[in-house]
Amino acid sequence: MSFQRQIAGGIVLDATYYLNRSNFAWDLNRDLNMVDPRIGFQNKGLTNVQVANPFYNILTPSKFPGQLRNQRTVSNSSLMKPYPQYGAINVTEGQPGGNSNYQSIQFKAQKNFSKGYSMLFGYNYHLQTDQRFFNNIDQYVQQYTDIASDASRHRMTGAATWEVPFGRGRKYMSSSNLFMEALMGGWNLTPTGFWRSGRLVRFGGLAVNGDPHVDHADQTHWFNKAAFAVLPAFTARTNPWQYDDIRGPQQFNMDISLVKSFHIYEQLRFELRADVFNMMNNITWNNPDTSVTSANFGRSANNDQLTQTYGRRTQLGLRLQF
Hints:
Blueprint: E1 2-6, E2 11-22, E3 30-31, H1 37-43, E4 50-52, E5 73-75, E6 90-91, E7 100-114, E8 117-132, H2 136-141, E9 145-148, E10 154-163, H3 178-184, E11 187-196, E12 200-202, E13 206-208, E14 228-230, E15 242-247, E16 251-265, E17 268-277, E18 313-321
Antiparallel strand pairs: 1-2, 2-7, 3-6, 4-5, 7-8, 8-9, 8-10, 10-11, 11-16, 12-15, 13-14, 16-17, 17-18
């Protein structure tokens, strides 16, 4: 649902509410031969005790294939499967549910090219929830939980084109000689950029004691590491996947292009361009390490730059249009 209005200067304002619902998007695979994990939480190490394998050398390999018939002993837990003579029995994309709900509010201001310039600015705020299995108990009983997406909540983008107003056909120096036209005329400047807020930091199963939040997060200290510890064996996960106030690094990027056009004659044009990517030479770090046993727990390791991001890069190009 969109509402648009044109205001002074030919600028069009746009406000949009966007809603999308997707079915069968998450956690659709199911192991039909899964052991109830609550048995392990209750009986702990007893589930790993090795016992005689009732399927050892049973029948013939043609009638009972697989490695299980060659093992003298197996764990108690392997015999607790609904079909202990088999391993995992996976149904792919056969579990109903796993829905995803996306909602966003979007604002846009756009001016089409006139008077030597154009511009576009956009802002997007979104909320998304996905039906996921919170832990392995939920996976066993096939119970979904609506969990917020870890994606950035805010994003702003902008782009503009400016005809530098010097040279033939432009506001200033429109009758310049060939030398001045070659030097000053025909330049176009095009900046583009975007900013997004940090992504939510997701944690595995951990023991949590205290407030994980820190007031001034940075590359070496994204959250309170002392609040986390290794989850004891045979213990159900209870900590949330993520915390609303623990987010990774933001990202800001600006690219700029400077283009010079030479009109040789009406149907032939020569173009010289310089493109600078990540003009501000910003570094965007990856989300922090959330493995509590890692030396980099709670921090973005040195040189751990976000995938597909780079330092400042410049390219020069020549193009002949005819």
